[in-house]
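Title: Comparing notes on inverse folding

I've been comparing how different people in this forum approach sequence design from structure. To keep things fair, I'm posting one structure and asking everyone to reply with a full sequence. Here's the target:
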């Protein structure tokens, strides 16, 4: 092999059927993985990317229906009872339901193929949708906080406490169902926005239980408990908003879990013929992970042999790294006594 480096550019692929924990589990998933051919071609990548987007669309659609039903029931009780704590919880549930709209649009947009302008596709739309989720969370916090403070200053009697308690239980159950579904699908397809929205729903379930506590306190004679619980709910919404800002902000800045980088380095370094792994980079494009690896092989190898090593590295990465859909493998010669990037470094120095 000459001093010139060679690149083995990976075509787009998603995680392999072998990883049922990150794909479709159960008997159906096993049979599909067993019968389907063991391949990593471009069509396989496209099919899996579309399948992940379809899973995301299904998750937000079902969540929308459940949360709208939950919020609808709570609205009726709010009107009848005048509970400001339940109002805050209802607003939170309604805002959580509305987050399904930007997420749905993002998943739909992400299904579009890459173009000459958007060469990596439209997967980043999911992260932009995360900003809309944050805005809705912030708006619900402001409104719920205002109503709670107003009710503290201008107390009003809460009625129909039995219905308030029942509505709180409905809210807790509905949100927990949605939370588990969103978090499970979000983690499986690698969508930070969907997972953050699932955590948001889980917090909504906790706030619903706070409404129940407040209603019990009011029933025992503590009328002030209702607006105080409303303020506590406002604080909970703000905490969720902070967590969402961190999650979505990190994804927008191309942050990845260091464990993923370590996993890729270990996988690449274990391939026969790889002398050293000198660079590993990764970034998320929506729920798809892209990676770039630089490694060294024996500089005396033939080009075809070095290329075969790069292809094996590429295959192992796609086979073992969840949500990885594309990889670029850069091969450098080792032991030649010269710097294979001398010309590049000289050019950068001149710049």
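Reply #1:
Here's my take.
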């Amino acid at each position: 092999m000459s001093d010139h480096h060679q690149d083995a550019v990976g075509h787009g692929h998603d995680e392999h059927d072998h990883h049922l924990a990150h794909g479709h589990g159960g008997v159906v998933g096993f049979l599909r993985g067993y019968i389907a051919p063991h391949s990593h071609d471009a069509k396989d990548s496209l099919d899996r990317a579309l399948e992940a987007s379809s899973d995301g669309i299904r998750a937000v659609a079902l969540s929308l229906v459940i949360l709208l039903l939950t919020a609808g029931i709570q609205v009726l009780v709010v009107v009848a009872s005048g509970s400001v704590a339940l109002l805050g919880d209802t607003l939170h549930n309604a805002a959580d339901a509305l987050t399904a709209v930007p997420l749905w649009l993002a998943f739909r947009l992400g299904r579009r193929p890459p173009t000459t302008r958007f060469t990596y596709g439209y997967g980043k739309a999911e992260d932009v949708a995360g900003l809309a989720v944050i805005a809705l969370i912030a708006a619900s916090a402001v409104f719920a906080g205002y109503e709670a403070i107003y009710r503290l200053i201008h107390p009003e009697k809460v009625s129909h406490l039995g219905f308030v308690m029942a509505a709180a239980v409905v809210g807790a159950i509905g949100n927990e169902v949605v939370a588990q579904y969103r978090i499970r699908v979000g983690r499986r397809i690698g969508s930070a926005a969907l997972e953050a929205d699932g955590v948001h729903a889980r917090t909504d379930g906790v706030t619903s239980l706070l409404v129940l506590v407040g209603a019990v306190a009011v029933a025992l004679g503590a009328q002030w408990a209702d607006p105080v619980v409303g303020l506590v709910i406002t604080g909970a919404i703000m905490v969720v908003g902070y967590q969402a800002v961190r999650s979505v902000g990190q994804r927008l800045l191309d942050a990845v879990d260091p464990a993923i980088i370590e996993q890729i380095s270990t996988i690449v370094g274990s391939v026969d013929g790889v002398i050293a792994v000198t660079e590993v980079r990764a970034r998320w494009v929506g729920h798809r992970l892209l990676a770039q690896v630089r490694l060294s092989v024996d500089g005396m190898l033939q080009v075809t042999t070095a290329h075969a090593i790069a292809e094996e590295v590429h295959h192992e990465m796609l086979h073992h790294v969840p949500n990885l859909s594309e990889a670029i493998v850069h091969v450098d010669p080792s032991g030649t006594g010269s710097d294979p990037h001398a010309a590049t470094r000289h050019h950068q120095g001149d710049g």
